[in-house]
Amino acid sequence: MALASLERFTYSYPGANARALDDVTLTIDDGLHLVTGPSGGGKSTLLRVFNGLVPHFHGGRVAGCARVAGMDVIRTPTRRLAREVGFVFQDPELQAVYQNVEREVAFGLENAAVPARDIPGRVEEALHAAGAQHLAGRLLRTLSGGERQRVALASALASRPRLVVLDEPTSQLDPQGTALVFDALRTAVASGRTVVVSEHRVGELAAVAGSLIAVDRGRVRTSDPSRWMAPMPPERVGTSGDPHPEAWCMRNATLGFNGDAVLHDVEAGGCAGEVIALTGPNGGGKTTLLRAIAGLLAPLSGTATRRPGRIAYLPQNPAALLHRPSVRAEVRFTLERARETTESPDVILGRLGLGAVATRYPRDLSSGERQRAAAAAVLPGRPALVLLDEPTRGMDTSARDALIDVIAGLRDGGAAVVLATHDAALRDAVADRSLCVTAGRVTEAAR
User: Fold this and answer.
1) H or E segment at 257?
2) What average pLDDT does range 164-175 have in this prediction?
3) Same domain, 121 and 193
4) How far is CA 326 from CA 154, 355, 406, in A?
5) Per-residue pLDDT tens for 209-222?
6) Same domain (yes/no): 182, 254
7) For residue 261, which phi and psi values (nearest 5 degrees)?
8) Domain count, the chain
9) How many CA atoms lie within 13 A of 425 on its CB side?
10) What pLDDT is recorded for position 299?
11) pTM tops 0.85, yes or no
């Protein structure tokens, strides 16, 4: 018997007119199953059926049948389903309970009444499986977004579930971290677990997946992963070509928190009309440098300067920006405070493909849509300095291409742009220069 199955399953969120899942029939057997599709197409909703968050937590209207490990999802409490289904969400920040890494990984084991003597060994096993053993002893607030994602994966693996479900687990990871997660997934499958993973980085997993599940506008179809074709990378956008004045500058700067240095002797700067990409491993200091450029973090020593003008800052967690009742209201809030602009909110919403969700509450959107909404909320109004931390997190190919066009327009309008990213396609399409941030140092990267 299949470990999980849906039969003519239909689901709508409370108050929604459109169906989030529409007459889905699907079987999940042993092995690895790869879920793909556009942002907002229903991938996360499908995944949340397996652990019962749809419909138990979200509510709404449901029809048809869903079963996991022999249990009827509609009639089984989520606490019972959680014993068989380990889940890693898109936003690891929202999944954390404790401040300490080991306590966080142990949380599910404690709730499952695993004997106390067995918990330390299970925690160590899970951290190693997720490639996060070096994070033991750390506080979650000191971790980068990618490091938090690895801890979330370890938390899911600790209970040794039969089914492991992951919603875009590598969206914030550097190539090494991505490889570690993919290795962990292959190990999980080899140990007898079934894995369902949603990913925009399809290529490597397609080679080992048993099925490719495409979700678009609530409809689901399966296909042979070997027939998947990689999308063409975006074309490089040209530069304005004219020299511009310096927009920001670090001189002999030591950057860190509470007296603890993260980056040493930083000598770097950027010009108006220039795009700089920050590259390097998770936890290397890219976010620290962005915050210092923005003026949110004063140097421990040395100097940090920037030219006058509005700063548009997109953090790793877009939910930190979104508090208005609609996506359009978020954009309008920014434009009302920007000087010398009569721009309509619908301009940036149209450019980022958000017209259809302009009246929606931002926190109800999918991760990719929420990322675009946060970008739309900070980028209009002709900012002088644009700082983007993992801006394509959770975005599909078409959304990334739209963001590339927006970034190019800001650059051509004279903005200085600095973006921290693991997305090589984004870097290659827009960056004039790259700075490598690793091992406490910032160095110019060869093109």
Assistant:
1) strand 246-257
2) 85
3) yes
4) 35, 12, 21
5) 889 999 999 999 99
6) no
7) -75, 135
8) 2
9) 20
10) 95
11) no
